[in-house]
Amino acid sequence: MIIGVPKEIKNNENRVALTPAGVTEFKKHGHTVYVQTSAGEGSGFADAEYEKAGATILPSIEAVYEIAEMIIKVKEPIESEYTLIKENQLLFTYFHFASSEPLTHAMISRKAICLAYETVEKADRSLPLLVPMSEVAGRMAIHEGAKYLEKPLKGRGILLGGVPGVRPANVLVLGGGVVGMQAARMAAGLGANVTIMDVSLPRLRYLNEIMPANVNTVYSNEYNIREHIKHASLIVGAVLIPGAKAPHLITRDMLKDMNPGTVLVDVAVDQGGCIETCKPTTHENPTYIIDDVVHYCVANMPGAVPYTSTLALTNATLPYALQLANKGWAKACRENAELKLGLNVIGDKVVYKGVADAWGLPLTDVETLLA
């Protein structure tokens, strides 16, 4: 198969979808790899390293899309890429269709094969291609939240861990999944008082067993959220419903109950955000203020630490990408239920329920298209 790796062009996205080590693996299986020039520079990989591994460097994004049968990316295509996508071309990347109606319709109109990292799912309901970036984003949420709590950045002027004689900050984490667990652990390590909320009692029991003593677990409901936001200096939104829009756990009217300078970090922004006042921001302009509350809603948080993020992501994606290349997407998805759940759009048909529900589109049974 002919593999194409374009340079990411979303604002401040420095990750790359394939490392030179990944090129070597594809070459071992007899595939051809084309990489756009400078695609890996943001993550610390020079063109010469890709060439040494066996890739061919192409001068433009147009050239990569034109020649490739499978495009491997990190982020969803942006508007300037839509017309480059060919009918029946396989795109393997993060899509988050449920948060973007224009992207959904664009991929349908291009009749592409869209296999989304974020909905590849194991039998135990875990999301193996989302986990590594969730781990990065969860940890970063505390780094960024702590920074924007500083007074010059319009925060409350609170040090998360406090100092002897001064109480540490209260941190509220909404969601006890991978993001929430990593955020809570990082905040606890800095000495904050941490509360983590979830609707799953088995998950709360598990977290209660493994978390440090300064992490408390509380059942998530509107009453409890409203009570805890009154005292929290940093609130992290970490709720995910695979392939669907995140629910709004913090509504606009709740901002008035927060202290001025409270910081909200919505890690669920890729899926529409779990904070009603959330809107996607960039690393260039990461925050905005509503009702004296600082909102940090960067949609590609791991892009700020691209070396770590690229290695973590490609460690997870490469085995799946090799299956797609070795067998072709249809056979690979027939034989691997995890990959089959990654299919969101096939040609002009939506085959993932969360996407169809989000935009009121007809849902086609994926099995009929794979038969």
From TrEMBL:
Listed InterPro entries: Ala_DH (IPR008141), Ala_DH/PNT_CS2 (IPR008143), AlaDH/PNT_N (IPR007886), AlaDH/PNT_NAD(H)-bd (IPR007698), NAD(P)-bd_dom_sf (IPR036291)
Family under the similarity heading: Belongs to the AlaDH/PNT family.
PROSITE patterns: ALADH_PNT_2
Pfam short name (any one): AlaDh_PNT_C
Residues bound to NAD(+): 134, 198, 203, 220, 239-240, 267-270, 298-301
Ranges where the Alanine dehydrogenase/pyridine nucleotide transhydrogenase N-terminal domain occurs: 4-137
Single GO BP term: L-alanine catabolic process
Listed name of the protein: Alanine dehydrogenase
E.C. number: 1.4.1.1
Originating organism: Flexibacter flexilis DSM 6793
